[in-house]
Design brief:
single chain; mainly alpha; A middle domain of Talin 1; two-stranded antiparallel sheet; 13 helices; 2 strands
């Protein structure tokens, strides 16, 4: 059975909504009203000290918003194709996450100085080890045994992550212009401009100049046809899903903020380090990308999973550092970006292992186990430094 051409696909799917096609009724679907309900709960609970039952409701709405975000992200991704679909979800989550980080920094407190560093590093470890490890595990356990992806695209993305992480999280631990693991004003400005420039260059390469490097491939290394099993959604359905994706992501990050006081009190009562709060919040915020990556891996689109993982790490650093550099002009107090010794070792090991995973363009169950072990080590050492 041959692959459909654009003309064949147009005759099979019919006219776009608005041109006489039957209009869908998305308001009847749970993926429509759950994000709106979560946003309403967020509005009602914002700025209030929530009791236990209210926190439970927030948790349920958070899960529902995450699942809805994944659904709508997949609809948008199917319409625009790869790698644009992965880019939409990664950038949307990161932009809202940056707003959350800036808001928490502005609120002050003892942890404000290290909050950006802890959250960004947690995002890097979650994406490069947690999401990558789970995606390779899902792909290799579904009868394929070998996960195949494009080494050129994934290698370039990994190089970008490593460069950004070293420039913003490693160098401050060794510079001598400021006391402690901090940048001077000029150094922070350079890091912000460099991060934003490299992020822009990566997006240009990913979506324009070398888009084919970031497309899913078959086990034989040929490009995977994304329309082989289902026609793309209509413009109206895509626009509807894009709007609801934004609503769901706002709800996810906002509800994570509402739950953070309960998490902070639980962490304090358990005698755990304050950095655990940033790790837990990062885990919640990155849930949509994690679930989307797992679904893609189970469908044989490992490259999409890697696009989500590395793209999220790049966006997290490339957008967060410029934002906090700008906000730090109005905020008083230190801005600690340099990692400690333990985290430096974990980051270095992650860079080496990731390179060995990506370069062949093929990975097995062993590589997934190595990444998941590194992720488990990060979580364990976060709770027991």
């Amino acid at each position: 059975m041959g692959t459909q051409t654009d003309g064949d696909r147009g005759r099979a799917t019919g006219p776009e909504p608005g041109d006489g096609a039957a209009a869908p009724r998305p308001w009847r679907q749970s993926t429509t009203w759950v994000p709106l309900l979560a946003l309403a709960v967020l509005a009602l609970g914002w700025g209030r000290d929530l009791p236990g039952p209210a926190v439970a409701v927030v948790g349920l709405c958070l899960v529902g918003a995450v699942l809805s975000a994944v659904h709508h992200a997949e609809v948008v991704a199917h319409r625009v194709g790869e790698p644009f679909g992965s880019l939409v979800l990664a950038v949307a989550v990161t932009v809202i996450e940056v707003g959350l980080i800036v808001m928490l920094m502005a609120s002050g407190g003892d942890k404000a100085a290290t909050y950006a560093r802890d959250t960004v590093f947690a995002a890097v470890m979650i994406t490069c080890n947690g999401i990558v490890g789970l995606s390779l595990l899902a792909a290799t356990l579904r009868g394929r045994r070998v996960a195949v992806f494009n080494a050129e695209g994934s290698g370039g993305a990994l190089a970008t992550v490593t460069t950004l992480a070293t420039t913003t999280l490693v160098l401050p631990a060794f510079t001598t212009g400021a006391s402690g693991p901090e940048f001077t004003g000029a150094q922070l400005t350079f890091a912000a401009v460099a991060s934003l420039s490299l992020y822009g260059l990566f997006v240009t390469v990913q979506t324009v100049r070398h888009r084919d490097y970031f497309l899913p491939v078959t086990t034989e290394g040929r490009p995977l046809d994304p329309t082989a099993h289902a026609p793309p959604p209509s413009r109206a359905a895509t626009g509807w899903s894009l709007g609801l994706l934004m609503v769901a992501l706002v709800a996810v990050v906002g509800l994570a903020k509402l739950a953070s006081p309960t998490i902070e009190s639980g962490v304090a009562s358990a005698g755990l380090p304050t950095a655990v709060v940033g790790v837990v919040i990062a885990l919640m915020v990155l849930l949509p990308e994690t679930l989307a990556a797992l679904r893609a891996a189970r469908g044989g689109r490992v490259q999409t999973s890697l696009n989500l993982a590395y793209g999220s790490a790049i966006a997290s650093i490339g957008l967060t550092v410029p934002a906090i550099a700008l906000v730090s002009v109005w905020l008083s107090g230190p801005l600690v970006l340099g990692l400690g010794d333990v985290h430096l070792v974990l980051l270095a090991l992650t860079a080496v292992v990731s390179a060995l995973t990506v370069v062949p363009g093929r990975a097995t169950l062993l590589q997934s186990g190595v990444h998941l072990l590194l992720f488990a080590a990060f979580l364990f050492l976060s709770f027991s430094p």
